[in-house]
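Same chain as my last thread, 246 residues:
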Amino acid sequence: MTNSIKVLAAGSLRRAWQPLCEAFTEKTGTKVNTEFGPAGLLRERIEQGEKVDLFASANTSHPLALQQHGKALSVDNFCGNSLCVTARKVPELETLNWLKVLLDSRFRLATSTPKSDPSGDYTWQMFENIERRHPGAGETLRNKALRLVGGENSAKVPESKLAAEWLICSGQADVFIGYTSYATLLRENDELEVFNVPADYNVRAIYALATCTEKGKPLAEFILSETGQHILQNAGFCGKHSVMTE
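reply #2:
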């Protein structure tokens, strides 16, 4: 379709993306065709020559890499996120805090895949924060973590499910580290318990847009507008003004 914009977007944006695109199409008449996936793998597709108008990444490094290689006209930070811990709701949790849940040898810990998926990179950064405060604990978590989603060969999370919900409720893991933007939805599941991670351990995830063509500029501008920012905040993200620039 000539009157459409092609987008590759981080999977964690899925919940916010539909209302964003519907509002944009209603305003401009231009349709948006989006494919979701782990941002690192999407970046590789663009580097290998796939033509897209806009790339929405869960970090800044992938868009900046595209810009450095002449694959993006501009890069803009557009929202933020953080990490939370989701666990299978069992009686043992009543006496444990978030860190003890992660370290408990009775529980299988799952994460996303570093390098392929920014969620995995942020998780490994959190492990480093834990290691600095509790020597040996971060290393234990790195060794314990099962990288079950977000990799090139990972099983795909069903479209109607969140990764934490799917992995835990299907019996593949007992605990998952993922984005706080999902916390409200996860708390609606009676089988799950969601733990907030304190700010001094947590990692601030900064999402960025790589505008790859002139055609993608109007959508990028809409996402950065007050209307676009409001939609993102309603989906659990923090706005562009509250994220730190690198």
